[in-house]
Design brief:
Helix content: 40-55%
Low-confidence stretches: none
Structural class: mainly alpha
Number of helices: 2
Order of helices and strands: HH
Number of domains: 1
Strand content: under 5%
Shape: globular
Number of strands: 0
Distance between the termini: 23 Å
Radius of gyration: 11 Å
Length: 58
Amino acid sequence: MQHHELQSFEELKEKIGEQARTEELFFRMDVRPPFHDTPENWEDVLESVFTAAKKTPG
């Protein structure tokens, strides 16, 4: 995890979306995010955020 300032899963989703729109980014998940609000289906949620953001012009 590169952004140690993040405090929640919601903030992580926002950051992934932002970076997917503005940077050449490859998304790889290998560790469950350590936030209290991380859902059980976190992998699916983050993949959806990433995919949707890549389809949205930056």
